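User: My collaborator sent over this chain with a note saying "see what the structure looks like." That's all I know about it. Can you take a look?
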Amino acid sequence: MTDYDENDQQMDCALDLMRRLPPQNVEENLITLLEVLPELTEDLLSAIDQPLKIRQDAQAGKEYLVCDYNRDGDSYRSPWSNEYDPPLADGNVPSDRLRKLEMAANEAFDTYKELYYEGGVSSVYLWDMDDSFAGVVLIKKVNDGTVRSKGSWDSIHVIEVVEKGRQARYKLTSTVMLYTVASGAKGDRQNEINLSGSLTRQDERDLPSEDANAHIVNMGRMVEDMEFKMRNALQEVYFGKTRDIVNGLRSASDLSESKNRERLQRDLFGQLKSRKD
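Assistant: Without extra context I'll predict from the sequence alone. Here is the result:
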């Protein structure tokens, strides 16, 4: 019992530490953590989301994203050709019914990616479960537009679907990893500003699902709603708070003007309140 409690405490501390470190360095930090806690290797690898990597499907001529959900041993399955790279004879693949749904979902989210990201790479992977199925929607957008700024957005949406006649219950767990780096003049790293972090949210809905296409519509709507909420949350937490801190340290305008504006606002509010009374 003592060993279990100690391992459980070590796992909690490791996850808490990883949440506080920059997402773009998660691979390096994870390797260091595994060297310190080798007995928790499997648990840490399955619990910690890593930035998505891009591979090329030579057969289909398209890029796809790799993660633990499309890995079998040292090989990764492409959602376009359904083949493993490196080749794997007995690799896990979805059933025929689920494969058709997977192909349609990849086409749908490829369109979604172009609408909201104007580029990037997306991949959808589905797998069979005992009385249901599950899947993951992956989206990655990297911006290396200029020397002075770059950034990356990684979305990982894990969906479990339990079919109940013409209804289905969808359980969604979404993780977004974001980092932006802005350098000083001429790429001066001494004046570099790094804003990065990750966010995880969950949602659960019961929705009608009369046919396979309904699953794609329902999953798409849930992912769209979740990404909208998470993007707003990230913007408020990371960029809004940064702006508030900077304004608190040094005002962008004359302080006398700001005080006069605040005094005018209080006077107007007082007048409106007196009229109501």
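A starting point for your reply to your collaborator: The radius of gyration is 24 Å.
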